[in-house]
Amino acid sequence: MHRTAQDIYDSFVEFARTFGAFQLFFLRLLRHSPSMLTSRFGVVVGQVYNAGALSLVIVMVCGLFVGAVLALQAYSNMSRFNAEDWTGVAAALALLKELGPVMTAILFAGRAGTALTSEIGLMKATDQLSAMEMMAVNPVRRVVVPRFLGGVIAMPLLAAVFSAVGLFGAHLVGVELFQVDVGSFWQQIQLMVEPADVREGIYKSIVFGIAASLIAVWEGYNTVPTAEGVGRATTRTVVITAITVLVFDFMITAVLI
After folding, report:
1. CA distance between the termini of the chain
2. What predicted TM-score, i.e. pTM, was given to this entire model?
3. With contact defined as beta carbons under 8 Å apart, do 69 and 172 qualify?
4. How far apart are CA 79 and CA 228, in angstroms?
């Protein structure tokens, strides 16, 4: 019994220590971000390309089929009430408010997040970060901050692409497959989707982008400098990001509802 209580206490202390270090790391990134955007904007743009443009294919393919599945489910449910014209509204609201930001964040973690973690982790494992410190170069500012900012900027853009392609997929299923009137399909979307619904998706994509990018660079920067350590860090990036995104999704929805 005493051993169990000691283990719980040690786990709590370790969690508190890690959480505090995580917060300090985040503050360091915020402190260097303004100067990075002004002095090395080209580097940040390159990281936006690496995190965003290279993830476009998987985001667009998944967005297309998610929108198509939403339209299938919406048409099946709406047809019970003779309200097939509302198929587009149901798909649009689900994409813009929930599935667009959430699915994009999870896909981002699986593609770009793991790349960020493994890249920084390998730099640590090969002593490149230590060499920078020896040359009086701040590795956080030089390596971590541009990648963090690139992910934060790319995430809302990817979420917008996901939702747009998802609406196209819903159009293909609703209009082309089930012959829903195209005018009614889009008119109902314009009438029922409010700016607040779009803003909710934007807020979520920004928060998820910060969380996903922060977790990725944190895991990479603090990985155990071995091949096994880098592998574990990339796995933790996906798992922790997915859990964090779902928790934040609930919290933001509860606040905005």
Report:
1. 45
2. 0.92
3. no
4. 53
